[in-house]
Predict the 3D structure of the following.
Amino acid sequence: MLIAIVSLPQNSGYSGVNYNFYIEAVNGKWSEYLYQLSSTGTHALIESKINYTESFGGPTIGPGYVKLRLDLNSINSPSNYGLSFYTAESFKSSEVRDFTSWVAIPPATIDILAHPENIVIRQGEKHLIPAEIDTPFSNNVTSITFDNGKDFSSNGLSVSTQRIQPPLFKVEVSPQSPVGLYTVPFVASLLIQTTSSTSPMFNDTVTGFVDPEFQVSKKYPTIGYITGPANLTIEVIPPLSVNETFMAFWVTYGTPIVILAGGAVGAFSTFFIDYLKSRREHK
């Protein structure tokens, strides 16, 4: 399995992968290795067990299975990390690998930050709400789905996704929607990109041993996905009253109206004074 430590900088490992832990069988003999990977692709052997004699499988697991027994102390006991499991079969210079998507440990919590943070909408209104969705592993959203599919609808409140990345939600509230707090559940999937290049071959710097794992070129998976639930919280409030509508209008347009009115009064005063002057001279 490949291990990516969330608390470390992304450039600390080989394209995001910090450790490679695997068990292999060569000519019927089992061995176990844990390597730490540098950003350049070099590796350091942290632990190894050669020529296992203990059983890896058993009647409760079934043939063809092994237990990956990794002591977290050997990788400094991280609190958050990602795993990608893989299998490999080699013959001479040929090898086939099969990787899983990345798995978050502990399971990833998807955080959402809406703009504005507190979504308040009046009955009969509709708004576009931009948002940010991320996990400790990624903020590259690839899909958003609601319980009812692409849209959410309840009591006249409807929410739809106008854009995936960055997320943009359209929220519509009917005049008949009950006033109150609404929770809109959805599921988001986020892309994790690790590496797209090939690991070079290196000898162990201490023993000079060339591990079979690095004797042929290897390519780690380029993508994986973290999927999890999240919620939008929306507060529906009554429409503006007549007084509130006037106050809102005055807050928005009051100053320009005062300026225009003052200018008009000034212009009229000048015109009126000129008129009186002209009339006096005429008399």
